[in-house]
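Hello, quick one for you while I still have it in my head. Could you read through the record and tell me how the C-alpha cells relate to the sequence? No rush at all, and the record is pasted right below.
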Amino acid sequence: MAHREKAHAMRNLEEEILSKNITPELAEQAHRLVIGDGNLDADIVFIGEAPGKKEDEQGMPFVGAAGKFLDVMLEAASMQRSDVYITNIVKYRPPNNRDPKASEKEAFWPFLLRQLEIIQPKVVITLGRHSMNYFLPDAIIGDVHGQPHKVVVGEQEMLLIPLYHPSAAAYNGSLRQTLIDDFLTVPEIVKQAKHL
C-alpha cells in the first residue's frame, strides 16, 4: 500500500471510530481521540495501553513522562520517533488515568488490528501487560519481556516483543535498567525480522 493510501486509510479509521461512537463514556470525558502518531511506513509499531492526561490534551501518544523515557530509549537504540509508529489499544484517556477496562480494550481491538494491517510493520512492541495480553493472553510480562514471539495479524506474520511500560520503569529503578537493556536488543531483532 502506498504512503498516500495508508494516510487515507488511517483517516478513514479515525472517522469510523468517531462516527460509531466507540466507548461513548470514555469519549464523553476525554478531550480528543488519540489515534497514534509516527511513520506509516515504519518497520516498528509500539503499542501502549491508553492515553494519559498530556496525551489527551495534545492528541499525541506518549508525550508525558513515559513518552520522555521512550524518547531516551529510542535515542539509545539509534532510533527516532519519525522512524516508528506509536499508538495505544484504547484511543481515549480513561478518567484519572485508571487502567482501561476489558470492555474498552475489546471495543478498540479491531481498530488496532486494522492499524497494523495498514502499516504492515515487521515488529510490534507492546509496552506493558495490557497490550501484550491481547497478543499473548497467557503470558506474564516478568517471564517474557524482551523475547521475540511470532504472531499473525490478518494475513501478515510479525515479530512481537513485549516490554515493560515506560511508566512502570519510572517508579522502579531496577525495571528501568531491564527496560533499557531489552530496548537495546530491538534494532538487531528488527534486522532479523526483515529476513523472515
